[in-house]
Design goal:
Length: 297
């Protein structure tokens, strides 16, 4: 808090309070007008800040998960790229994604009969319903089957070939999400995918989380095959470095660019008034800067 003096000499309190996500070497700070939610759940510390630049911001254990003003980048990119390149997805699984943004975007597509979402922490859902309602808008949709449980356990118990799309929309590899970054888990995801199935994961920042980034692509390739795994990027200002990656792993023939129909994508984006995804971004997102391509070659 800053205490400043007015010209007359009387003190005026101006709010100067910042949320800061810190790592060893870099930090991201956002000025805010207070904390709206602050609960220690069984799994993590769940907080919502009222930031001045990005609207309400959800953090878990001090790390940014999503904000009202830039959430659409992440949620549009993690959902529309697989949905619009799969021949006809009917059943999707979301691991994590407790804010509801991924479910909201998936359910824009009429092709889905069911979207199963498995979020470990009901406090995340509660915080977002209360304070990020625009993101949490699909919880009442009858096609959404919301399960509060560990996604690792759910995947282990799911039947072979039972999902067309699996989206791993989960936290960084610390805390409850640690097991979501292991070979065993991805093998199980492969098993529950249908023959044409696609797995999408948020795959961290190539610049910031270089070690995890390189390692998980090796894991994906060892399971899906060398040429079956693709990386795409999006610009997310509230995540460390702003450069964020997603992986696209295909069990069958689905290909992120060869199976892309520009007219269909264009019409879809227009119909729903999307704010980031469009037919140009779909293709451009797979063009990787050389340093990123080299990391996963
Ligand atoms: N939609 C973008 C926000 C997230 S939130 C990730 C969610 O994954 C959290 O709600 C967390 O509780 C949940 N989660 C973590 N581990 C598990 C698990 N084992 N099973 C089910 N859900 C889990 C992702 C932000 C990306 C981070 C960028 N730095």
């Amino acid at each position: 808090r800053d205490e400043k003096s007015s010209e007359e000499g009387s003190p005026i309190r101006t709010r100067d309070v910042w949320f800061t996500e810190r790592d060893d070497k870099i930090a991201l700070s956002l000025k805010h007008d207070g904390k709206l939610y602050d609960v220690q759940s069984d799994f993590q510390k769940v907080e919502v800040y009222k930031t001045q630049a990005y609207g309400n911001l959800l953090t878990l254990d001090g790390m940014v998960m999503t904000s009202e003003k830039d959430e659409y980048v992440y949620h549009e990119m993690i959902t529309h790229i697989p949905t619009l390149t799969h021949p006809k997805p009917k059943r999707a699984l979301v691991i994590g994604g407790g804010d509801g943004g991924t479910a909201r975007e998936l359910l824009r597509h009429d092709c889905y009969d069911e979207v199963v979402m498995v979020e470990i922490d009901d406090k995340v859902i509660e915080a977002c319903k209360e304070h990020l309602p625009g993101i949490a808008s699909a919880f009442g949709n009858p096609k959404l089957n919301l399960i509060v449980d560990d996604g690792i356990k759910y995947v282990k118990d799911a039947a072979d070939g039972s999902f067309d799309i699996v989206i791993v929309d989960s936290t960084d590899p610390v805390g409850p999400a640690e097991g979501l970054f292991t070979v065993e888990f991805y093998k199980e995801v492969y098993r529950i995918l249908s023959d044409d199935g696609i797995m999408i994961t948020q795959s961290e920042s190539p610049r910031f989380n270089s070690k995890v980034f390189k390692e998980i692509y090796q894991v994906y390739r060892s399971i899906f095959g060398q040429d079956q795994v693709h990386c795409y990027l999006a610009y997310i200002p509230t995540y460390p470095t702003g450069m964020w990656s997603f992986s696209y792993s295909s069990k069958g023939k689905a290909h992120p660019l060869k199976d892309f129909n520009a007219e269909e994508s264009k019409a879809f984006a227009k119909k729903h008034g999307l704010k980031y995804y469009n037919e140009g971004i779909h293709q451009a997102a797979f063009a990787l800067p050389s340093f990123v391509a080299e990391m996963i070659s």
